[in-house]
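Shape matters. As here.
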Amino acid sequence: MTSAQVDNGQADGPEAADASAGEGYQRGLGARQIQMIAIGGAIGTGLFLGAGKAIDRAGPSLILAYAIAGLVIFFIMRALGELLMYRPVSGSFAEYAREFLGPFFGFVTGWTYWLFWVVTGITEVTAAATYMTYWWDIPQWLSALVFTVILYGANLISVKLFGELEFWFSMVKVTAILGMILICAGVLTIGFSDAGDTATVANLWNDGGFFPEGISGTLMTLQIVMFAFLAVELVGVTAGESKDPKTVLPKAINTVPWRIAVFYVGALIMILSVVPWSTFEPGVSPFVAAFEEMGLGIGAAIVNFVVLTAALSSCNSGMYSTGRMLRDLALNGQGPKAFTKLTKNGLPLVGTTFSAVLMLVGVWINYQWPGEAFNYVVSFATISGMWAWIMILISQIRYRAKADRGELPQSTFKAPGAPFTSWFALAFIGLVIVMMAIDKDARISLYCAPVWGLILGVSYLVLKARNPENTAFAKR
């Protein structure tokens, strides 16, 4: 529900569950698709490619980093779930920031989350282009261009097709990781493959200990770790197009602990047990490298195909979410009116097209810096994505306080331990930002963030001055 709809007398609270029907979207995403979007959302480039750099920095202790960060992610998702059951809307984070922190924060959150997915789309097509070089010696920029165009076309058909594509993309990723875990288990227990004689759980501490680079090395990987989890919140963006959000979304959110335990912690334990951590190199998928070390060349090629689909899946999600966020902003008078238009299939064509055009910047980045493109965009994607998490947590804290005072209806899906868990998650995100400031490779994103904030601040003041009667700029 947009603020414009609130002013038109539409209901707030639990009875607003179906309010998004008035937004013009079609509820084409079923339980099966939402569950796989939720599962697959956290399985992408950050795990398949970024983990290589993180292993090089932290060694086996990366497992602990993923486990602790995974707990924080669960706190964030339960905070989001509490808000979604209070009011499931397509605008999601921007709408909650607008309601509980004020119109300026809604404006910043909407545009920043849009930017996050544009940058993430660039990251993912960059990764996909990198994977293509495993088979063919073709320019990265050319692969990035082709992938961007294909995924843009796929997002112009229907939301049901998007959901179906994501279902199968996620199915491939899930099946592949489970298969890899089973193969590694076989190597450890039966001893087949070239790594059979050296594979042992003791590899987790034999080569320099569990913390070979010290605690500081582990802390310095937090930015990469948190980047791997970006997009888990995408399930919130699907709220406006879910067939039964009040039933489906809580189930999807409650899968967070076990999917992190299996797909991150479990997978890394198996890989680092079979292949010593010092074998892996930054910029190379540890999954592909592990199969090559085991002498399973065909397996390495299959895994490379899987990580390629993972990158394309994330970029596909980016195409989906950017158009929705731009439309929410436009409906609130905080973006060009052209973004409000939907096709007869209920798709935000203009917003999706605008975002896809900007994603083509990734093609230029790949052309200019094919070796460094991934590292350049990862840090900025992380800081912009974490802004959405911060807004979710603060919004949930304020919502819970109002609900406890009886000013708002209680959510049917309360976050356990809140607001203390939300404060803990905020403190952890603060730690990640400090680590990014220390890391010279990630520091550039902190330089860019104030510039982006200044642009948004000036834009907000200009829009407010031009539309002084627009209720989207008024406090509720």
